[in-house]
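Researcher: I need the complex structure. Ligand is adenosine monophosphate. Inputs:
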Amino acid sequence: MSAVLVINSGSSSLKYQLLEMEGETVLANGLIERIGEQAGSVKHSVSAEGDEETFRNEEPVADHSAAFRVMIDAFEQHGPSLAENPPVVVGHRVVHGGKRFFEPTVVTDLVKINIEDLSDLAPLHNPANLDGITAAQKAFPDVPHVAVFDTAFHSTLAPSAYTYAIDAELAEKNRVRRYGFHGTSHKFVSEAAAAFLQRPLGELKTIVLHLGNGASACAVDGGRSKDTSMGLTPLEGLVMGTRSGDLDPAVLIHLHRKAGLGFDELDTLLNRRSGLVGLSGRGDMRDVVEAAESGDDAAALALEVYLHRLKHYVGSYIAVLGGVDAIVFTAGVGENSVAVRGRALAGLERLGIRIDPERNASPERGPRVISTDDSAVAVLVIPTNEELEIARQSLSVI
Ligand code: AMP
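Model: Output:
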């Protein structure tokens, strides 16, 4: 039996999952939060025969090394035994691979230096990912560690899609171009869509709408990313929980000159105080839809702006792909929000897109069709599974 441990390390959190790869089943998963704060929280869930038992604990967790000790303790106390299911590889999510990393990569000292070097492009993510890798190497010194990059799937973008129309030399020197993110999810979901539709991946034109707290769209042509809505950083594109998405860059210059906002304030404004939160005071789509339905004008506008932007990308990706076979919703909002799915694609019948309201409202959880039988374009909901994709890719390189 081959087990894979998947690690997603944030600045103050550690998410993990242990998978058994013959049947691709989850053995256990957990989340350690508030690392470095006075009171940390630990959640460890053990899966067996379709059931999941969850154990919670509150304890201080000083740093990422301590988090790994807490994780190993949780396995010892609650199972499954790591001695009986030793991971053959540890797979790590790394957000920014820049132009260097297009493939899952076995971690060496040089790879770590390169991940560190890319930190200026992802200051919130890459250093935290690296802390997780270093701590994991100490905890599991005898197995290979593999980095799987969020940007990698978008390495197939053509220069026309990834180049910003600014001074070419300045851009090159400072690595300014579009990279795209959520690649692990876009890859998993576009491949799952082809399998679900029983169509060859190489023939399929798909638009994947990954709508979570962060959100991005991806135009996938024959299994390859052709365009995606996030750019140099995960700020560009769709309206998100707290991020603005697309904006006239002159807005920044104007706010700097007129309102005296400095760069750190602008950074906070666009990344943390914009999007649904900025427009309505609510960052969770459930709350926004509920407030909009009970007559809150700000929430209603936030939802309209979100949907308008989404439709704008769907239309533009149909053009980029030269037609579309399948549109796929995934992640927290995409998998759960009947209202967002229905309204985002309403009025597109002339483009061959017809949603079936009953199918859309079905409480089913797995991969499913929500378009009508006579819709030329298949509209699907496919739950994303980034951990499984990281596990598959990690196993593939050792
Ligand atoms: P993710 O980043 O994929 O975990 O998605 C998290 C987001 O999904 C939350 O912030 C919510 O906005 C959204 N979400 C989760 N459940 C629902 C739901 N039932 N209806 C609408 N949005 C939801």
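Model: Summary of the prediction. The chain has a mean pLDDT of 97.
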